[in-house]
Model the fold of this input.
Amino acid sequence: MIRRIHSCDVTIRKIWNKLSFRLLKQSWRIEMVARWIAWRIIREILRDRRTLAFFFLVPLIVMSLIYYALQEDETARLGVVSRGVMRLFEADLMLTLEEEDIELVSLDIPDEEIDPERLEQMIWTQLRTGQAEGILFLGEQLLEERFDGKRGRIDFYLEGSRPTLTASVVESVASVMDDLASSLPVVIDSSCSAFCANSVNIKPLDLEEHYLYGSEDYRLIDFFLPVFPPFFVFFFTFLISTITFQRERVRGTLERLLIAPVSFTQIVLGYVGGFIIFSGCQAAIILTFILSLIGFKITLTQIGAIAFLTFLMLLISLVLGLLASFLAANEFQALQFIPLVILPQIFLSDMIWSIDGFPKIFQWISLALPLTHANTAMRNVLLKQQNIWDSWPQLLTLSGFFFCILLLLVLVSRRHQNAA
Done:
């Protein structure tokens, strides 16, 4: 019995030793394989400068963009123009306005008595050239109307294309109207009692608003809706085209086409023709949806103009996606181009945040982004009711982007053809 127990104990020990050795050997192999794979990944990343930049530089750039975008709200600018005896009250009004959250600006309007119609045209010119978001005009008729027992009219001229700034400047001016009304002189008859004198001129001033673009019915969302079609078309077309073209390279289809007896122009036209149907349907869906949300009237001419701008952005995103797939060595590098191309255009294209609040270097970079010029043209057409050809600098710039990217695409493709 004792011998059997001893024999079983020896057998169990042998089995345990074998299992321990195998487990130790297997864990050692797992550790060695894991170390080898980890070291291989580290070496590949160290050799790939784009990946290193994506790891360390891109987060810093994105955080900087977020910082400057959220650092400070836009400040509305207000100018004041007075004529006649109302010049005597302009200084007190300016002191009161300085306490509001607006910026008082000097206007390029001569301080002399001129024809009222000419003066009004000068005021509109100041708004049209972006000198101010609002101009308050104090005419000499104001005192005459107050003396006649009327409320008294103050003309308030507004640019109107930016609802947030318009609302800010209107709120600031409305808050000081009571102070201005109380500072104006009154005419009291000598036979008027003390009670009568205290009740004179208690009517509020009548602030009459005149809009250069739009009206007081413009909503905040109406300022952002015009820039959505070019952005979403650009984003999804670039995303899908980059991944699809890279897949064509991985399968070897693109390389076989490059060494085939066909021109590169035919290849590009083929890819663009294949994508243009689906991208065009996508653009039509986006445009239809956005137009249904806009709260102001739109003409057929405007619809045609924004459709043309959206189509132009579609072409730019297609060739840019093809260029990115050529420059990328693998699918991971192709994916790196997506945040590199898309994120700066979200922050710097004046889509959500005004570029005026960013440092100069970012303002210069914004000029090199297609979406910046597309957004400007879209707002000119929809919000400012301008003809599309009035935005010819933006159209010329977008066309230049397309041909420059196409030229780069030809140069890069020739390098791949020679390598093949």
User: Anything to note?
Assistant: The mean pLDDT is 78. The first strand starts at residue 77 and ends at 82.
